[in-house]
């Protein structure tokens, strides 16, 4: 079993942080200025020996590697920040590692594919780094700091080419001889399947066997494996500002026991993001090294049992979220010791422990169905919210079709969303070539409607209105249709990016 820790490359000065949050700002500023919000609240967190390090110093990485080896942490998963038009940020620590061949730190990337924006921005799913320093709402400012946009094949190739030297490095973590690449929010990338296909093709052209893609906290099809990144996965749907560590861990182990597909599992030593969010933050209380030991022992047990060769810990150094293995003044090396001991002990568990690890809660099948329905509603709400935003700004999706040169359009899915799409397209100078729907024999429209299983005539593009199931629809159609297959959300996202 090998342990990979999530790694935040935020602890060094960059011009953007100076501009947004003040001269000399790094993550350490938030950590040092953290406040107590109740009597027993452990804040501020202080690194052991006041080691407020700078990640651009080679000696810092040497120290981290020594700690890793002493406590059997195999590698680091660097957050990778790559935005619209190839804009990068916080990239220097990884780029330095690429140059410093003597630093024996196995590593991989998790692409944190979020727009950076202030909390009052329109953007959904944004990352608001420091709510406490944001300033007041400004109606003339869209609040966007760095925009996430995925572009087309040209942009995908540029992104791949940036990553290629890392993928080729002997220290880069690989599975089945393929470099591991994790995507933090795959559901937010409407073109993710096409992008991954392009990257796999480019990898093979460059002498690799492909790329091993891992989706974080998602069940989207088309990935090699899935990562349950904690505590987000097991806290999803629970809105309590304060939760108990043991209760979260029990949910976590239960989720692991129920996992199908190929999964990698993840533990966490604690959580407290009040240094970034203030009184609006979330805290997971009552965590201890001994509870962390028990959690990691269970994670290693299930990882081994389910054939997962790696287990993750979130995180090595998320100090601003109270989620780190590095030594601090309170616990010193105790969390690292707990991790090492769990690695040594997980194969020799007691009969009672095995019963506890294998205890799966009764799952009501109706709740499973409700979860699937809930996922549909979430996709619908997100799509229509974006679509209304486009209309409120007096724009239409015609802008997308004009730019792409598409004239003969196919609509997949002629239910609720498809009907709204059809109504809008009727007002545009495009032709509806035909529709595709599983209920094609029940639909009467002034153009042909085919079943997804029939031979599909030529057209410029298929627009899939059933966005919540785009991955499986794309997989089913890609060998039947000689042209682009696009999610309606991708069309709307394209227009939104040109509005603000």
Write a structural description.
By secondary structure, the chain is α/β, with parallel strands linked by helices. The chain is built from 17 helices and 22 strands. It has helices at about 15-20, 25-30, 60-70, 90-100, 155-170, 190-205, 230-235, 245-260, 275, 290-305, 335-345, 350-355, 365-390, 400-405, 415-425, 470-475, 490-500, and strands at about 1-5, 75-80, 105-110, 115, 145, 175, 180-185, 210-215, 225, 240-245, 265, 265, 270, 285, 310-315, 315-320, 325, 410, 430-435, 450, 460-465, 485. The strands form five sheets. Strands 1, 2, 3, 6, 7, 8, 9, 11, 12 and 15 form a ten-stranded mixed beta sheet that branches. Helix 10 (about 290-305) runs parallel beside helix 11 (about 335-345) and helix 13 (about 365-390) packs parallel to helix 17. The protein is globular and about 75 Å long. The two termini are about 45 Å apart. About 40% of the residues are buried. Residues about 360-365 have low confidence and may be disordered.
What is the averaged pLDDT score? 91
Q: How many DSSP helices?
A: 17
Helix amount, in percent? 25-40%
Tally of strands: 22
Major sheet description: 10 strands, mixed
- Parts with pLDDT < 50 across at least 5 consecutive residues: 362-367
Measured by DSSP, the beta-strand proportion falls in 15-25%
Q: From the helix content, strand content and strand pairing, which structural class follows?
A: alpha/beta
- Cα separation of the termini: 47 Å
What is the 3D shape? globular
Radius of gyration: 24 Å
């Amino acid at each position: 079993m090998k342990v990979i820790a999530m790694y935040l490359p935020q602890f060094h000065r960059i011009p953007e942080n100076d501009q947004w949050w003040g001269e000399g700002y790094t993550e350490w500023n938030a950590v040092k200025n953290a406040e107590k919000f109740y009597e027993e609240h452990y804040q501020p967190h202080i690194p052991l020996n006041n080691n407020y390090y700078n990640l651009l110093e080679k000696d810092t990485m040497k120290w981290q590697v020594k700690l890793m080896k002493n406590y059997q942490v195999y590698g680091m998963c660097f957050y990778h920040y790559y935005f619209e038009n190839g804009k990068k940020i916080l990239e220097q620590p990884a780029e330095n590692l690429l140059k410093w061949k003597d630093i024996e730190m196995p590593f991989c990337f998790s692409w944190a594919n979020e727009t950076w924006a202030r909390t009052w921005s329109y953007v959904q799913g944004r990352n608001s780094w420091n709510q406490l320093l944001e300033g007041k709402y400004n109606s003339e400012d869209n609040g966007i700091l760095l925009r996430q946009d995925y572009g087309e094949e040209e942009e995908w190739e540029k992104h791949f080419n940036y990553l290629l030297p890392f993928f080729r490095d002997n220290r880069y973590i690989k599975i089945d001889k393929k470099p591991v690449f994790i995507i933090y929010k795959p559901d937010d990338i409407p073109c993710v399947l096409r992008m991954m296909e392009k990257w796999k093709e480019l990898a093979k052209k460059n002498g690799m066997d492909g790329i091993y893609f891992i989706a974080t906290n998602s069940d989207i099809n088309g990935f090699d494996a899935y990562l349950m990144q904690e505590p987000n996965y097991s806290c999803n749907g629970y809105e309590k500002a304060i939760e108990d560590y043991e209760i979260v861990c029990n949910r976590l182990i239960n989720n692991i026991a129920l996992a199908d597909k190929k999964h990698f599992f993840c533990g966490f030593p604690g959580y407290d993001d009040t240094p970034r969010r203030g009184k609006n933050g979330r805290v997971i209380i009552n965590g201890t090294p001994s509870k962390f030991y028990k959690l990691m022992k269970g994670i290693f047990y299930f990882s081994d049992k389910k054939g997962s060769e790696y287990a993750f810990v979130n995180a090595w150094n998320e100090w601003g979220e109270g989620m780190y293995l590095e030594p601090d003044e309170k616990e010193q090396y105790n969390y690292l010791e707990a991790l090492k001991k769990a690695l040594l002990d997980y194969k020799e568990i007691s009969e009672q422990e095995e019963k506890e690890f294998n205890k799966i809660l009764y799952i009501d099948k109706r709740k499973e169905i409700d979860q699937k329905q809930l996922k549909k509603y979430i996709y619908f709400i997100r799509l229509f919210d974006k679509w209304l935003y486009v209309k409120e700004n007096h724009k239409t999706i015609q802008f997308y079709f004009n730019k792409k040169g598409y004239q003969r359009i196919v609509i997949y899915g002629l239910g609720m969303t498809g009907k709204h799409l059809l109504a809008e397209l009727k007002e545009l100078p495009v032709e509806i070539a035909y529709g595709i729907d599983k209920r094609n024999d029940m639909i009467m429209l002034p153009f042909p409607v085919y079943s997804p299983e029939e031979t599909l005539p030529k057209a410029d593009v298929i627009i899939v209105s059933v966005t919540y199931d785009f991955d499986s629809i794309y997989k089913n159609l890609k060998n039947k249709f000689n042209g682009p297959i696009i999610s309606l959300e991708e069309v709307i996202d394209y227009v939104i990016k040109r509005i603000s």
